[in-house]
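Appendix B, record 7
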Amino acid sequence: MRDILTERLEAVREESITQAAADNDAYLFEAARSELRTEVQKLRELQSAEYGSNLARLQRDVEIAHQELNESITTMKSGIDLDINDRKNSNQQEASLVDMRLQELNNRISIDIVSDMKSEIEALRWQTTRRGLTAVTFVLAAMLIGISLGKKNEKENQRKSVPVAKGAEIPVPMLTSSEDEINYLEEKRFAVETLNEIDK
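Structure tokens (predicted):
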């Protein structure tokens, strides 16, 4: 009987030791789990803060890059506008220079044409005047020759119509030139010299 009681006491003691160990293990497990939860929460908070800091830094970098891009675009646009304005001014200057050269060339051509026309008109007028003077000289020479011939014929007719008396001497024409013939030759020579002067 004593042995049975001793065995039961030993069994109860072992069960109580086992229950205490289990309770101790459960407590340790709960403590470890709580500590692990705390660590995980801290790690999550640290990671969240780090992620927030990285996100803020990325946002600042994006804003800076966007601002620099806008400044670069503005600078490029200003440079392009300046180049376009310079090109426009250059084209306008070139167009003005071309217009000036065309105007100068037009004026030069007009002056040359007018000068040539004046020269041709002057030459034509001089030629017409010379021809008119030649014609007038020919007419005057012909008139002078006609008048001289008319006077000569008239004198010859008068000489032939004079009656010759009996015993009168018949005049014999002399070999020397008469005054009318000398005048005729001088008028003819003057007309020829005048024509030669006009032709020169």
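Remarks on this record: The chain is about 90% helix and 0% strand. Residues 2-158+178-199 form one domain.
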